[in-house]
Amino acid sequence: MELYLSKEATMGAVQSEFSGAFPGLKIAFFSKPHGESKGSAAKFLLQHKETLLGELSPNLKVGSLSIQPESVVWAVESDFEKNFGLHVQIFRKSGNLWLETSVSDKLTLAAQMQKAAESEQIHAPMVDPMDYREQD
Q: How many Å apart are CA 71 and CA 31, to the nearest integer?
């Protein structure tokens, strides 16, 4: 995917486009950077989807970021930082939870999507037609 970033784009629009291209993954914006295989503190999480990228990075250069399934998580996060001054963290869905991918930063987005898909099967609700409650 080619993700076009401009000062007028909103966090929410970028998040939607990313999640649409990479099911089971999401991108979160933070006010502070993080290192490879390091997590981002929740207190730095930016949650207002209407926030313009230009507000997050006043010197943001308009351009496209090429993100492929073969891209490594840390490389994608680093490209956002180096090329656009945006601090992002990729999260992977695991059942009903979103996991920060800091421990698995060296995996590709395709591998992360596979893990997310597998977790959906693991966390599927158990269907048991038997009713074991005491009956009179």
A: 24
DSSP 71-123: SBHHHHHHHHHHHH--EEEEEEEETTEEEETTTTTTSBHHHHHHHHHHHHHHT
- What global pTM score does this model have? 0.83
Q: Estimate the share of the chain in helix, then strand, then coil, as percent rounded to the nearest 5.
A: 30, 25, 45
Expressed as residue numbers, the domain containing 57 is 2-121
Report, as ranges of residue numbers, the positions in the chain whose pLDDT lies below 70: 35-36, 122-136
What is the longest distance spanned by two Cα atoms in the chain?
A: 73
Token representation of residue 64: 């496209």
Rounded CA-CA distance 109/105 in Å is 9
Domain count, the chain: 1
> Is residue 11 one of the residues assigned to a domain?
yes
In the chain, the amino acid numbered 131 is D
